[in-house]
């Protein structure tokens, strides 16, 4: 059987994974239909208006990002601990298997939670779309 990774290896993997996930793109943004208003003001002005509307949404739309991250981390730790205990029991080391499994599971849960929080909620999108609409833009979707 393959040896279980050491805690140093797990920490390095966790840090690298966190960096990769956090250094991704800025997140979804509205796509604007090229109507007469957009053509009149230009893309630079539209980008500024998008940023302003997104900032307003961040100020006024409640979120539960912290709860999502914490919940995913706890679920990942529990699942990883159980899986690690089973794997460790097969190898004769259920305790260390459970500890390693819990660490890996918690890391995966944390990363999953962080990724999910980068996705805007439907309420956030609706707020931004309405803000842009009131400024003369037409949002046709998000990417």
Strand content: under 5%
- Describe the global form: rod-shaped
The N- to C-terminal Cα distance equals: 44 Å
Query: Order of strands side by side in the largest beta sheet?
Result: 1-2
Chain-averaged pLDDT = 77
Fraction of residues in helix: over 70%
Which regions are unreliable across 5 or more consecutive residues at pLDDT < 50? 18-24
By DSSP (H or I, 4+ residues per run), the number of helices equals: 6
Question: How does the major sheet shape up?
Answer: 2 strands, antiparallel
Q: How many runs of DSSP E, i.e. beta strands?
A: 2
The protein's oligomeric status is single chain
The SSE string, one letter per element, is HEHHHHHE
Cα-atom radius of gyration: 22 Å
Q: Which structural category do the helix and sheet elements fall into?
A: mainly alpha
């Amino acid at each position: 059987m393959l040896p279980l990774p050491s805690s140093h290896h797990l920490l390095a993997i966790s840090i690298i994974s966190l960096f990769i996930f956090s250094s991704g793109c800025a997140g979804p943004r509205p796509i604007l239909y090229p109507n007469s208003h957009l053509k009149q003001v230009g893309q630079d002005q539209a980008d500024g208006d998008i940023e302003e509307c997104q900032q307003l949404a961040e100020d006024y739309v409640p979120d539960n990002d912290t709860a999502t991250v914490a919940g995913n981390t706890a679920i990942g730790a529990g699942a990883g601990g159980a899986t690690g205990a089973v794997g460790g029991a097969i190898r004769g080391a259920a305790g260390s298997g459970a500890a390693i499994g819990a660490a890996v599971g918690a890391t995966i849960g944390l990363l999953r939670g962080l990724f999910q929080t980068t996705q805007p909620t439907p309420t956030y999108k609706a707020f931004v779309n309405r803000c842009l609409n009131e400024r003369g833009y037409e949002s046709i979707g998000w990417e």
